[in-house]
Amino acid sequence: MQSARPAAASYVLIDAENVDWAVSNIVGRKPEPQDRVQFDRLVAFCDTYFPKPVRCVVVLNARGEQLPDAMIGFVRALKSAGCEVALLHGRPDQKVVDLGILKLLENIRTQRPGAAVGLASHDGADFAEALKPLLEEKRQVAVLGLREYVSQRFRELTPLGLKVVDLELNARVFQRPLPRLLPVNVDEFDPTMFV
Questions:
Q1: Cα separations (Å) of 65 from 70, 165, 173?
Q2: Are 78 and 39 in contact (CB under 8 A)?
Q3: Residue 2: its pLDDT value, please?
Q4: Which residues have CB under 8 Å from 122's CB, separation 6+?
Q5: Distant-in-sequence, close-in-space partners of 61: CB < 8 Å, separation ≥ 6
Q6: How far apart are CA 148 and CA 130, in angstroms?
Q7: Most CB atoms closer than 10 Å: which of 3, 65, 97, 121?
Q8: Is the four-CA dihedral 39, 41, 43, 46 of positive or negative sign?
Q9: How far apart are CA 8 and CA 12, in angstroms?
Q10: 3-state secondary structure string, 30-78?
Q11: What is the pLDDT of residue 6?
C-alpha cells in the first residue's frame, strides 16, 4: 500500500543504537553527549549530500508499548533536529530495529522508484542484501558510519556503486574529535608525529 504522504527524493534510515555502539568502542566507554552524533548536523549533511527533499528516519526500540521516560527527551531532540522517529517494539527474540529498517528498505524499493537511500549503520550482516537490489537499480545508495567499523559485507557492494560516508570525516556530525586510530596512506604519512 502506498502512503498518502508526499514522496521524498531521498530516505536516510538511522540505526542509532548501532552508531552509538561504534562510538562507544572508539571512546572505550559509554559515550558522553559530546561524543554522540549531533542529529541536526546529520540532517544538514544529508540535505546537501542526497537529492532533496530528504527524509531522515531514526528507528528505535521502544522496548514495550509505552515509551520509557528515559527516551522521551531523546525522541523530542530527534524530532527538533528534523528527524522522524519510528518507535518499534516486539518480542524479546526479535531484532526490532533491524526488522523495521528492512521493512523500510523494502517499502522504499517497491513504492518509491528511483529514491536515493542512506543507511546509518555498520551492520552489513543484516542490511547488505537489502541494499543490493537498490544498487542494481542504479539508485544513489550510501552507508554512513565510522569507516573502521563498516562491515566487510557493505564494502563488497562498493563495486556496485555503494558509497561509504564517514560520519566524522565527511559528515562532521560530532562536537569534538573522536580518538580514532585510522590507517593512513603511506604517501600521506607524517613521520614527525612519531619522532
A1: 14, 34, 31
A2: yes
A3: 56
A4: 18, 19, 21, 22, 143, 145, 146, 149, 150, 151, 154
A5: 17, 88, 89, 96, 97
A6: 22
A7: 121
A8: negative
A9: 10
A10: CCCHHHCCCHHHHHHHHHHHCCCCEEEEEEEECCCCCCCHHHHHHHHHH
A11: 85
Non-local CB neighbours of 87 within 8 Å, separated by 6+ positions: 60, 62, 67, 75
Give the residue among 163, 94, 162, 83 at the shortest CA–CA distance from 126: 94
Which has the closest alpha carbon to 120: 44, 33, 7, 20? Answer: 20
Under-50 pLDDT residues of the chain: none
Going by C-alpha positions, the residue among 61, 64, 55 that lies closest to residue 74 is: 61
Give the residue among 42, 39, 37 at the shortest CA–CA distance from 19.
Answer: 37
- Here the cell at position 169 is 570525516
Terminal C-alpha separation, the chain: 63
Backbone angles phi, psi at 117, to 5 degrees: -135, 130
Residue-wise pLDDT tens digits, 17-58? 999 999 999 999 999 989 999 999 999 999 999 999 999 999
Long-range CB contact pairs, 62-67, < 8 A, 24+: 62/87, 62/88, 62/89, 63/89, 64/89, 65/89
CATH class (in words) of the domain with range 10-193: alpha beta
What is the predicted pLDDT for the residue at 5?
Answer: 78
| pLDDT for 183 | 85
